[in-house]
Amino acid sequence: WRTLYELSFPRDERMSLEELDVMIKRQLVLVHRTTDSEGNLLCFSIVTPMSNFSLLAYIATDQTRRSSGVGSKHMKALIALLKKSYPTHRGLFLEIESTREVGLSQTEEVERKRRLAFYERLGCKRLLGADYLLPSYVPGSPARHGELLWFEYHDNLASSSADTSKVLGSIIREI
C-alpha cells in the first residue's frame, strides 16, 4: 500500500511514511486493504477513529483497476466494518478537493466532480455552504480549497438544523 499511497497523492497531501508507520503501530489509524484472490492489492484506505466519528484520511485504487467497481466494493465493506466496530460513531467523514474552486483546468474540474459523484453514489452527503480548507503537509505551502463529506451511520445526525450545525461544527474543529 505504501507504493500506491506515494503514487496516488501529491506530496503536500501526504503524511510521511514514517509518521504513518508510527500511527499504525500505535493504532491511531487503521489501514484497510482490498486484494484479489492472489493477494494483489487492489485498493486501500487509511481511517482515523476520532471522538464520535471516523475520518477517511486516504483511499486509493490501483491505477489499472479504477472504474471497475473495486473502490465501491472497498468503501461499502469499510463502512460496514466501521459501523460494527464503532457503533456509537455518527459516521465516516472525508475531505475532497473543492469542485467549486475558481480557475480549475477542465481536466481538474472533471476529475474533482467525478470523485464527488463516486462518493455521492455510495450515499455520501455533502456539507454545503461552508468554506473548508485542506491543510498542506509541506511547511510553507498554502492550504487547498476543499469540501467535507460524510456517510451518516444513522439517519439522525441531530434532531434539528441547529443541532446539526452544532454537531458538524464540533466535528470540523476536531478534524
Structure in words:
The chain is an alpha+beta fold. Helix content is 35%, strand content 25%. It has helices at residues 2-8, 17-25, 70-85, 106-121, 161-174, and strands at 30-35, 41-49, 54-61, 91-97, 125-126, 132-134, 144-152. Strands 1, 2, 3, 4, 5, 6 and 7 form a 7-stranded mixed sheet that branches. β3 (54-61), α3 (70-85) and β4 (91-97) form a beta-alpha-beta unit. It is globular and about 45 Å long. The mean pLDDT is 89.
Which features characterize this protein?
alpha+beta, 175 residues, seven-stranded mixed sheet, globular, 5 helices, 7 strands
Compact overview of the structure:
This protein is of the alpha+beta class and 175 residues long. Helices cover 35% and strands 25% of the residues.
